[in-house]
Write a structure and sequence with these properties.
Elements lengths: L2 E6 L6 H4 L1 H6 L11 E6 L6 E2 L5 E2 L13 E4 L6 H6 L4 H7 L7 E4 L4 H6 L7 E2 L6 H7 L4 E2 L5 E3 L3 E4 L4 H14 L1 H11 L26 H9 L7 H7 L4 H12 L3 H19 L4 H7 L5 H12 L3 H8 L6
């Protein structure tokens, strides 16, 4: 049975963001094309929803859909003046959220984090929202640890994302958690988006496109991906880019949003996950092929980023027919 995803659309919903869950989850399929998720959209009372733009949308379900969902996604909606002033939910919205099952995973996209905050679901938790409203979220809900510098936050049952494309990153993160990197990467290819952006990556990068492409770090990033098995250092990467370490680090962070070595570790980890899923290679071979050097270092990275060992990850996500 497919994993049931219910998307709640409220007045003020952003149409682009409303379509993100269905677009991503519907592209997560088995090798024979069977969809792994069933995505449905609901509104309060099943009524048409006024969007943030100049039109309304019609949905086929009311909020009773939330009772049977495995994952509930609160689509991005513009916080009302009342919510921003009082931190309180309207009665019908509070009643709808109360219908979510106790085991359901709850996801907020962008400013829908305000709804979770008002419902008390973020108390004592770390969370994020659009960078422009992080201060407002922190002031309104002081019990919440607001992090303005990340794309998304995974607290287990409760997950929050930053604005815009960060919602895509969070949905792909969920696919990766549920079904592994290979399925998530295939879904990303069909959506024509990047298959992996770490949740801890910065929301706002000042200079995403360097003015002088000859001084971009993109060629060095590709070179590093082609040499993951090598014991690359920061000095090696700077030398390849024909820059000083200081200049390379500054430009790399400006283009990517993270440090070179953190980015490299994430790429190595992503490749290791793919090999664990799709091959029968021993863990020691995978550690060498991904540049970790030995199984101990690989195991430390898996525990740090994923909370489980490489063997446990393989048991959970190994494909039935290894490549």
């Amino acid at each position: 049975m497919p994993h049931r995803v219910a998307v709640l659309a409220l007045d003020g919903v952003l149409p682009l963001d409303l379509g993100i869950p269905a677009r991503v989850f519907n592209e997560a399929c088995t090798s024979d094309g069977t969809r792994l998720y069933s995505v449905s959209t609901c509104s309060i009372g099943g009524r048409p929803v006024r969007t943030h733009e100049d039109y309304k949308i019609v949905v086929d379900h009311d909020e009773s859909l939330l009772e049977t969902a495995d994952t509930v996604v609160l689509a991005t909606q513009e916080p009302s003046k009342e919510l921003l002033a009082t931190g309180a939910l309207p009665g019908d919205v509070a009643a709808a959220l109360a219908r979510i099952g106790p085991r359901a995973r709850i996801v907020s996209l962008c400013t829908s984090a305000f709804l979770l905050g008002a419902a008390g679901l973020l108390d004592g938790r770390r969370a994020t929202t659009h960078w422009a409203l992080c201060d407002a979220l922190a002031r309104l809900f002081p019990e919440v640890e607001v992090d303005p510098g990340v794309l998304f936050v995974d607290n287990g049952r409760i997950l929050t994302s930053a604005g815009g494309a960060a919602g895509i990153d969070l949905c792909l993160h969920l696919v990766r958690l549920d079904h592994g990197a290979a399925v998530a990467s295939a879904a990303a290819r069909r959506c024509v988006v990047a298959p992996w952006r770490e949740g801890g990556q910065a929301q706002f990068i000042e200079h995403p496109v360097p003015q002088d492409t000859d001084r971009s770090t993109s060629a060095t990033r590709q070179w590093a991906l082609d040499h993951l098995a090598d014991p690359l250092t920061l000095e090696d990467m700077a030398r390849h880019a024909n820059m000083s370490v200081r200049t390379f680090t500054r430009r790399f962070r400006g283009e990517v949003g993270s440090s070179p070595l953190k980015w490299l570790a994430q790429r190595r980890l992503s490749h290791a996950r793919l090999l664990l899923e799709s091959t029968d290679l021993p863990v020691a071979r995978i550690a060498t092929a991904c540049g970790f050097g030995d199984p101990v270092t690989l195991r430390k990275h898996f525990y740090a980023y994923l909370g489980l060992s490489p063997l446990a990850y393989r048991r959970a996500h190994h494909a039935p027919e290894p490549a």
